[in-house]
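Preliminary data (for renewal application), 6-O-phosphono-beta-D-fructofuranose complex.
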Amino acid sequence: MKIKTIGVLTSGGDAPGMNAAIRAVVRTGIEDGITTYGISRGYEGLINGEFEKLNARSVSGILQRGGTVLKTARSDRFKEKEYRDRAMKMCSVFGIEALVVIGGDGSFRGALDFLREGMKCIVIPATIDNDISCSEYCIGYDTALNTALSAIDKLRDTAYSHERVTVIEVMGRHAGYIAINDGIAGGADAIVIPEMEYNFQHDIIKPIMEGRNRGKRDHCIVIAEGVGDTVNIAKEIENTTGIRTVCTILGYIQRGGSPMARDRVVASKMGFKAVEVLNEGRFNRAICQRDNKIVDIDIEEALKMEKASFDYDMNLARVLAM
Ligand code: F6P
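Predicted structure:
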């Protein structure tokens, strides 16, 4: 039977482009005769029944805005069956037959738990960490990458003037996607990510000293937050090399800002695809980008997929850092 009423929510850390995905879900739904409820504050709002019917106008003017107009949260309560049951009751009160969840890994797992209890779910990957393995791309990544890159460029200017080492910590939770690609784009002397073991002397001090001996007077080290201990690494660099070393933790600035074109386009395509899949009567699917195409795969399968190795990119970054 054709789905008539759905809910859409954003969950986990916000990511630029989430609004474009919400807009696409609502407007594609309207085209297909589907009523969409916006659920506030992720799974918390689902438990609390914070539902509001959305129309074409409710999602106008949001495409260019960072963050999420639905608000977001990380819900520990939703991990407990008692609260998922409560959420299920709220869905039945509003006649919600399927849910579109826009978020990262934790949001995917929440959807998996909920679908095992009978709710039809479609998930859309949105996280600046870009660490949903089933998809080549997650909404928000490009904007975060560019926000961090513009900060790296600025920090390199001042490091150049003062002939310092600048150590920059970027976000990514347990993943090194922002670090590796901003390290390459920002010309870092060394990149440290949680996925790869590193040797302090060999992987950080040696490239700095080799650069020094080739006449380089400023150095940039990009570290993913998942490595931990960025401040101590910076102190150790100064102690070992004798070169003044400053440390900047970029933090939440990476999550904000108007989404770049890529995030708006991918989010629009993924939101459109989510409703298309529901309309075709296929449920419990993850929307992904694979071979540059927007496709859907089983959520459980999606969560089992492994990340590609960073070895090649790390070597490339090392060679170009001379
Ligand atoms: O998942 C996105 C992210 O920004 C990570 O990079 C970071 O580790 C985490 O969220 C921070 O989460 P919170 O907003 O809960 O502090």
